[in-house]
Write a structure and sequence with these properties.
single chain, mainly alpha, three-stranded mixed sheet, 14 helices
Length: about 400
């Protein structure tokens, strides 16, 4: 419990100082979760089809693997029959019922028993644990999950069961979204009514962009699941070979020749290649399931775009009234740093994507040197947001007029 709380504190501090790193983590997890869900859904269908082709009435005694497959085949057949019956009834009824049936199937499918992005997140979070007699439990890697799906030996929990383990739900996320929207509306309305924004409101407005991004990319992710699904058995050699192959394969993982490669890999989110889940009792903090090169680059690019948006919002206070000229100067320099440093990393990603190795080496040092300046700028803006509250104008204390009429949180 202490370790979990320390991890949460570390994530919170990271979200305050470098929130775009949390966005990159969220994007990597979502991309990997989608890939896991898609791959395992196809593998599960193939396994069911192969088993159904060999199924006969003489099969009485079933092993545990065969039992899982047998139940899966029966459930899949039942679901297909239910879908056909519901579609047939809707087509016969026509009108509104048919329209609603098509709308529900497209946007709210009955996927409780199928592989979904939620299941993919669950795998990335270490939701499946090996339970070996005499050994400490350890989480299954995505490759080991695939191996068990191929064999039909993994009993897939329902999506509703996973969500039941989650500490968050759609309602709490919707309430948080409405509160964020309400704050943004007020921040837009104040300049319209010629009411000034405080520096603290500008900083908070910048964080709303980060919050919205994280809410989107983690919408299907279960929150703080503390009870994993136990899986009996041992690590398969095939799964370990898959991990070893993936780690040693140069085309699937980011490799740098610079001595500071380890630090840069951690910054870019490529540190999962060094993780061996078979030696751990839980997945590491910021683990994303070993994304490939393209997923890492996409995640970093998206995170850096939001980082530049974050800095650009701070630039909105460029001409605000500050208590002293020095504070205004520090605010301006720090705001430019929040836009400039992410731009350096975007240039680094572009150079790496086009394999311009000579230029990449030059940008490596520049990008790493920019990290402490970036963190210092973030801390400076955070501190100024509170210190400038000591001399507010009377207009800053006024509220938008329509807030007394429209109900709000």
């Amino acid at each position: 419990m202490i370790r979990v709380n320390l991890e949460r504190v570390a994530i919170t501090i990271c979200a305050l100082l470098v929130p775009e790193y949390i966005i990159g983590w969220a994007v990597r997890q979502r991309l990997v979760a989608r890939q896991i869900a898609k791959t395992n859904a196809e593998l599960a269908i193939t396994a069911r089809q192969e088993y159904a082709a060999t199924l006969n009435d003489s099969a009485i005694a079933l092993s545990s693997d065969r039992r899982v497959l047998f139940e899966s085949v029966m459930m899949a057949a039942h679901r297909e029959e239910e879908k056909r019956r519901a579609t047939s009834e809707a087509e016969r009824a026509g009108g509104v019922k048919l329209i609603w049936h098509k709308f529900r199937n497209k946007y709210f499918p009955d996927d409780d028993d199928e592989w979904t992005v939620t299941h993919g997140f669950f795998v990335v979070m270490g939701g499946f644990y090996f339970l070996e007699p005499g050994n400490d439990p350890c989480p299954l890697s995505p490759e080991e999950v695939e191996e068990r799906v191929k064999k039909g030996s993994l009993e897939l929990p329902k999506k509703s069961e996973i969500n039941d383990k989650s500490k968050g739900d759609a309602f709490s996320k919707a309430v948080a979204s409405l509160q964020t929207i309400w704050f943004v509306m007020q921040s837009i309305a104040r300049p319209i009514q010629h009411l000034p924004l405080t520096e603290l409101e500008v900083v908070t407005l910048a964080y709303t962009a980060i919050h919205i991004a994280m809410l989107y990319f983690w919408w299907s992710k279960p929150l703080s699941v503390s009870r994993p699904v136990r899986v009996l058995g041992q690590h398969t050699s095939t799964a370990k070979d898959c991990e070893a192959t993936r780690i040693n394969e140069p085309t699937k993982t980011i490799r740098f020749v610079d001595p500071l490669a380890s630090l840069l890999k951690a910054v870019m989110g490529a540190q999962d290649d060094e993780v061996d889940l078979s030696k751990l009792q839980s997945v590491p903090t910021f683990y994303a399931g070993k994304p490939d090169d393209m997923q890492i680059l996409w995640a970093d690019a998206i995170a850096l775009v939001f980082a530049m948006v974050f800095g650009a919002v701070h630039c909105a206070a460029w001409s605000f009234a500050f208590p002293t000229h020095s504070e205004k100067l520090i605010w301006r320099i720090a705001s430019v740093a929040l836009v400039g440093v992410p731009a350096i990393y975007i240039a680094l990603i572009i150079l790496y994507a086009f394999e311009l190795k000579r230029l990449v080496k030059h940008f490596l040092l520049l990008s790493l040197v920019g990290i402490p300046f970036y963190i210092a700028a973030r801390i400076a803006l955070f501190v100024l947001a509170f210190t400038t509250l000591r001399s507010l104008s009377p207009e800053a204390l006024e509220t938008v007029h329509w807030t007394t009429i429209i109900p709000h949180f």
